[in-house]
Write a structure and sequence with these properties.
By secondary structure, the chain is of the alpha+beta class. It is globular. It has 2 domains: 1-38; 62-271, Porin, CATH 2.40.160. Strand 8 and strand 9 form a beta hairpin. The protein has 1 helix and 14 strands, in the order αββββββββββββββ. It has a 12-stranded antiparallel β-barrel with strand order 1-4-5-6-7-8-9-10-11-12-13-14. Strands 2-3 form a two-stranded antiparallel ribbon. The termini are far apart. 16% of the residues lie in helices and 49% in strands.
């Protein structure tokens, strides 16, 4: 009887200890499961990597231009500055489908048909540039207005076309009021441009040579028909700057010496 009582007492003492141990083990296991659940939820809730923000385009992206300084502004063989230097600038805005708008300016020095002296030329041009086929023939078709503030008698409009095939270029222009003399005029010109290999130019890169022949078909009032010629050597210095040396002359039938004589001119151009 005594042994039975002792055994029952020991069982009563051991049972609570076993219960505490089982409860503790269960809590630890549950806590471990909870940690894994939290990690899984965190991984699932992690935000996706941010995508790069596309660059915002601006209307200025379609704007380009250049500024140049030349020792003599020669147009179709005739000096427009009385053989004096000129500062010139141009702005072009590109539109869809190859259309564009252009503004060009320069100082000048000559008299209009009424005898008023022109000192500034401001041209406005609207046109389209594109190509036929896989760049088979490139073309530029535009309508230009040559404006001379203070000498409006010299202002006139002209329709121009320019066609390029590889190294060859052909231009045809028409005006119903050529040079402001209220008579029609045509201008035809052809140009051949050759990129000079560096081994033939003392290893100088980015050199080109262009030869041009032009013919102005004009009334006697506008100064008679005549031919003009030019040879231009151009060197690209970098993406911004270009320098050029040019020889120009005419056949003298304009009878406008010394403005239509042989000249050698230099030009520095900055593009932006």
């Amino acid at each position: 009887m005594k042994k039975i009582v002792v055994m029952l007492s020991m069982c009563m003492l051991i049972n609570p200890l076993l219960s505490v141990h089982a409860t503790t083990t269960h809590k630890k296991h549950h806590k471990k499961k909870h940690v894994h659940a939290v990690e899984k939820e965190y991984k699932e809730a992690a935000p996706a990597p941010a995508t790069p923000t596309p660059a915002v385009s601006s209307w200025l992206d379609n704007l380009s231009g250049n500024f140049d300084f030349t020792s003599n502004y020669v147009f179709r063989g005739l000096s427009q500055t009385s053989n004096l230097p000129a500062a010139q600038g141009s702005l072009t805005y590109a539109l869809p489908l190859g259309f564009y708008l252009n503004s060009w300016g320069s100082n000048v020095k000559f008299n209009d048909p009424q005898g008023r002296q022109a000192t500034v030329e401001l041209d406005t041009i609207a046109g389209i540039r594109n190509s036929i086929g896989n760049n088979f023939i490139a073309y530029d078709i535009n309508l230009a207005r040559y404006n001379y503030p203070g000498a409006r008698g010299a202002t006139y409009n002209e329709f121009n076309t320019l066609w390029t095939y590889k190294i060859f270029q052909l231009g045809i222009s028409y005006s119903g009021n050529s040079f402001g003399y209220h008579d029609t005029g045509m201008y035809y010109n052809g140009t051949v441009t050759f990129n000079i290999p560096s081994q033939y130019a003392f290893h100088v890169q980015d050199l080109s040579l262009a030869g041009e022949f032009g013919h102005s078909s004009l009334s006697r009032a506008a100064g008679n028909s005549y031919n003009d010629y030019s040879v231009t050597l151009t060197k690209i210095l970098n993406k911004t700057y270009t320098i050029a040396a040019q020889w120009t002359s005419t056949n003298g039938r304009q009878h406008n010496a010394p403005l239509d004589g042989s000249e050698i001119n230099g030009t520095v151009t900055a593009n932006f």
